[in-house]
UniProtKB/TrEMBL annotation:
The active site is at E65 (proton acceptor). It comes from Paenibacillus antarcticus. A divalent metal cation binds at E72. It is a multi-pass membrane protein. GO terms for biological process: phospholipid biosynthetic process. This is Diacylglycerol kinase.
Length: 122
């Protein structure tokens, strides 16, 4: 692989992230929530292990949303007709995002519970 094509791949990846962030409402929501979580973690001065779990959960949600976006684009490219298999593919990808987001909520509760209790004297 040439250096040009290797470095070009980063540009293509950035285009994909930009596309998802600018065209997908849910990606914007996930991005805003991720930023709020990161700010809260910084304010609470969370431990490295807590940061690790938060960043893992955030990355999983954003990645799942991007896979969902990519799958929807491919399905729409193949046909504009409503087909049961196309619906199944899109619904399954959306379900994967939902499961990942639910996991992220659980991680957030586990990570923030004790620091918030300590902060508010519970």
């Amino acid at each position: 692989m040439s250096k040009k094509s290797f470095f070009s791949s980063f540009g293509f990846a950035a285009e994909g992230i930009r596309y998802a962030m600018t065209t997908q409402r849910n990606m914007k929501v996930h991005g805003v929530v991720a930023l709020l979580v990161i700010v809260a973690a910084a304010v609470l001065q969370l431990s490295s292990i807590r940061w690790l779990f938060l960043l893992l959960a955030i990355t999983l949600v954003l990645t799942a949303e991007m896979f969902n976006t990519a799958l929807e684009a491919v399905v729409d490219l193949i046909s504009s007709d409503i087909h049961p298999l196309a619906k199944a593919a899109k619904d399954t990808a959306a379900g994967a995002v939902l499961l990942t987001a639910a996991f992220a909520v659980v991680v957030g509760i586990v990570v923030f519970y004790r620091p918030l209790v300590a902060l508010f004297g519970g």
